[in-house]
Design a protein that fits this description.
The protein has about 350 residues and is α/β, with parallel strands linked by helices. The structure holds iron/sulfur cluster.
Length: about 350
């Protein structure tokens, strides 16, 4: 959409629409319902508001709903979509079908500036933040939008580095006048920015996953750049001390790399770190990419970690790996730049 000076509706809440359109709050909620639940892309087709309001709104605003520009399907059924906004930034979104749940994994930034070495999005570099509307659009403009049950913020980008837009997107996705998805079915993932996590826990009721890598400070500092500024121990203590609201889930993601962080010593370290807490552990297979020679831990090792954690009283599960063959799995999203990256080393 060329710059016409019109305002973008996708990403607005009823109060913002009320002041933009000079209408009452109930009419504004009719508009958000049509936008976020029914995905009506043309303002003149919105039902339940006056003709004058539609005409005025069409003069000053546009919905800004964008379809994906391409897609790739995995042999396991997951589908990766490429979106391009008007800036133009490119970012990827993954649909993960399941027996009992259908999940969309959304991006919060084009690229990422956190620089985790095992993640291709970090290699992509930072291109820009996505607006709340860009984030929501990945949910409502997905071809499978109508059958979605869960949303995870685990695509490209560090959500705590774009927190205002992430909190606003969570708010609109969970609101009755918005998409009305249960907050229990929305999970935001972070590699750890302490101040952002504090704000997230205060201003959103959605679930949180913290990516740990190692229970040992020095080892984590050598690998995860964020550890130098935001120590994991501080973040775990924050999670432990958080008064858990009913059903809100705080978890740790632990990506297991063969011979790097899957020893018995690491297992004991995890047990000690998480003892007497309600924090759950998600064990993940490492997804190898072309830029390093690290290999995933064996499935047996993941099972062993899970068994040992559970029998020691730490809640643990193994997250199923999806979409590896189309570079849609955790840590592999790179939008349109994958080939450039592969040729650059
Ligand atoms: S793992 Fe997450 S925070 Fe780290 S570089 Fe990748 S997208 Fe960014």
């Amino acid at each position: 959409m060329p710059d016409t000076g019109k305002k973008l509706l996708c990403g607005m809440d009823p109060d913002e629409i009320k002041s933009l359109a000079n209408c009452d709050i109930s009419a504004a909620k009719v508009i958000t319902n049509c936008l976020y639940k029914k995905r009506i892309a043309d303002i003149t087709r919105i039902t339940g508001i006056s003709k004058q309001l539609k005409e005025y709104l069409s003069e000053v605003a546009y919905t800004g709903l964008l379809n994906p520009v391409s897609c790739q399907k995995s042999s396991d059924g997951s589908i990766k979509y490429l979106f391009r906004n008007n800036n133009p930034l490119e970012y990827e979104t993954v649909f993960l079908p399941g027996d009992r749940r259908n999940t969309v994994c959304v991006s919060t930034q084009a690229g990422c500036r956190m620089g985790c070495p095992f993640c291709v999005s970090g290699k992509y570099g930072f291109r820009g933040n996505l607006s709340a509307g860009d984030i929501i659009n990945q949910v409502i403009s997905l071809p499978e939008s109508g059958i979605l049950t869960h949303v995870v913020f685990m695509g490209m980008g560090e959500p705590m580095d774009n927190l205002d837009n992430v909190i606003k997107a969570c708010h609109i996705l969970t609101a009755e006048w918005g998409r009305a998805i249960s907050r229990r079915n929305i999970t935001v993932s972070t590699v750890g920015i302490t101040s952002g996590i504090k704000r997230f826990l205060r201003f959103s009721d959605c679930n949180l996953v913290f990516s740990l890598f190692s229970p040992f400070e020095e080892e984590r500092r050598n690998v995860i750049p964020a550890e130098r500024k935001y120590p994991a121990r501080e973040i775990i203590n924050l999670m432990k001390s958080y008064p858990l609201q009913k059903k809100r889930r705080l978890s740790i993601a632990y990506v297991m790399i063969d011979g790097i962080n899957d020893s018995d010593k690491h297992l004991e370290g995890l047990k000690v770190l998480l003892r007497n807490s309600m924090i759950r552990v998600n064990l993940l297979k490492y997804h190898q990419h072309p830029y390093d020679d690290r290999a995933p831990s064996t499935p047996e090792r993941l099972q062993y970690f899970k068994h040992e954690l559970v029998t020691s009283g730490v809640s643990a599960s193994i997250r199923r790996s999806r979409g590896e063959d189309i570079s849609a799995a955790c840590g592999l999203l790179a939008a349109g730049l994958r080939d450039d990256l592969m040729n650059s080393d």
